[in-house]
Design goal:
Elements (H helix, E strand, L loop, with lengths): L21 H15 L14 H16 L10 E4 L10 H14 L8 E6 L11 E2 L1 H5 L7 H16 L3 H7 L1
Antiparallel strand pairs: 1-2, 2-3
Helix pairs in contact: 1-2, 1-5, 2-6
């Protein structure tokens, strides 16, 4: 039996931040719990001894994404509204703010948070592929689940240093 954590707190890792989808946070924390749990008789410092638990967990979670079994709320990310936006690096946030303000007739104040979802479609600009959850719920757009799976893989690879071979087996 594995020794379970009562509470695992991780901060500073990209999958714990509000600009990540809920299911990515859940997968990241699940992988961390499995990496850090103690199994009597097994070397706690050898990551490969944990793969028997980690890979099926990742596969199961990503299958829920592929099969469209997650609620919209699991795809929602958020960011703070800034007073000023400069350059193309902030284009996604600026574009979603413009859409929300136009559709809802409100002026978003600096430091308030906006929520958004990546949607399927073709657009001239990547920034046009983000919509507010309210608008996605209307049924006009579908969540870009393939993009979220890819984003999850990037997050796990960069933050948890899971090798591409390990991720390939679970994606």
């Amino acid at each position: 039996h594995a020794v379970k954590f009562r509470k695992l707190k991780a901060s500073g890792m990209s999958f714990t931040k509000r600009n990540r989808a809920g299911f990515i946070k859940r997968i990241g924390m699940g992988v961390m719990e499995r990496l850090l749990s103690h199994h009597p008789g097994k070397d706690p410092f050898i990551v490969t001894s944990r793969m028997a638990e980690i890979l099926p967990f990742i596969k199961e979670e990503l299958k829920k994404v592929r099969d469209d079994k997650l609620p919209l709320s699991d795809y929602v990310t958020s960011c703070a509204v800034r007073e000023e936006y400069k350059g193309d690096s902030d284009l996604k946030q600026k574009r979603i703010i413009e859409k929300i303000e136009k559709r809802e007739g409100v002026k978003l104040m600096p430091n308030s948070r906006i929520r958004f979802v990546r949607v399927q479609g073709k657009a001239l600009k990547n920034s046009d592929l983000y919509e507010s959850p309210k608008y996605v719920e209307s049924g006009e757009f579908k969540v870009d689940r393939a993009w979220y799976i890819e984003d999850c893989g990037k997050s796990l690879k960069s933050e948890l240093k899971l090798t591409p071979v390990i991720l390939e087996k679970s994606l």
